[in-house]
Amino acid sequence: MPDVPDFSAAPWRQDDTLAIAQAGRALTYAELSAHAAERARQLAVKGLAPGQVVMAPDLPAWDLPIMQHSLARLGAALFPFRADLPASELTALERLVAAEWRWRPESGCLQKTGQCPPQAAGSEPSDVRVLIKTSGSSGGLKAVMLTGGNLLASARAANQALGLARGDLWLTCLRLSHIGGLAICYRCALAGAAVLIHDGFDAAAVARDLGGRPVTHLSLVPPMLARLLDLGVAPPALLRVLLVGGQAVSTGLARRALEAGWPLHLTYGMTETGSQIAVRPAIGQNRLDTTLAGEPLPGVELDGAHCDEAGRLRVRGPMVMAGYAGPDRRPGRGLEPGGWLATSDLGCLTAEGQLRVLGRADDVLVIGGVNVSRAAVERRVSDAPGVRDSVVVGIPEPIWGFRVAVAYQGDVDEAGLEQWCRSHLPSAGRPRDFLRLEALPLLASGKYDRVRIASMLKGLVLKASSGRPGEPPA
Description:
AMP-bd_C_sf, acid-thiol ligase activity, ANL_N_sf, AMP-binding protein, ATP-dep_AMP-bd_enzyme
């Protein structure tokens, strides 16, 4: 395989190595290549042209890797979406990017949407090959555009950092409509490794496959890891990489994973960068600082302050998106001059060149004139004895600005955790309200549902503070 493969030649090999597997089904690369070629032929007959966008559901997950490689061969773009997405939101996405086609895997039907993106006279077909929905820092609906070059650069850098090679097996239970799941399929194809697909996260199913298959790589978000640890699932002997990202990892969770023998790798990235841009390999008990995300991947430039003065991170490199999509799918939207992407995260580079991520810039609460980092409080609370994980929110308060509240999982009761916080946290950032839960609510992506948790805590505060004046932070 050449050093820089042609994206349109995906899946880049045609041998008898295992390519994808799920439950009782499997395809070799020769079979996957044949399936992709035949589907590309059928889609072209239907009228699909280079540069056009096909929206496809992420279930059944088995179908999506075939569609990935088929569209790559045609020079068209894949826009995967959650199969359970409300019809109104699906229509909004379709209009946002002026997607021309929708794929229905249950019938094998490619349907025109009626959308027609504006095109400049004489313009070449777009080189965008994937669009991914994201909420962005503002919470509004956005779609990230990634070119074939972005996807290949990301896959090559990640494979180098993670040691992914021909014959390896990567289990993914991340939805393929998210970049964290979809990127694994490109990485495996580029390396000649196989992807073991799950239709979402089911802890018992993941545990069965870890015990019965030669899994070498596994990607999880922190709540998924916590669930496996709660069930006492042991890492398989062949597992070399447990990649955990998508949100901050608490020190307590990292410690539990390491004590159980998991080969924990921390990562940092986002949809706008085609997934990860930094990896911290195989952390050990002697360096449990989970704010460290490791060295930037090859080709990644970070415009961040050194750690005596953390600021908002800016990123540039070959995996950084072409831009946010509009109906014209014009590149550059959302990028600064020079191709820089301004993230919503606070971070810095250590003297050793490692990226330290300190939370989101919009996570700072001003309480009685004091700046309080919600992420820093969350990390500290998660270190408390008897706390397995926690989510901290700021509840608006008319006198002091905010009051800090925490929902958590663990063995310690609310009174015990409140006492610990009094002894270990400064007054302005100390939680005033505590909610102990059997399980923290999750989004369909597996991440914590912070909106729902905040609503639960607001209800708790409202009930407790009826008729009570604001409590000073000091």
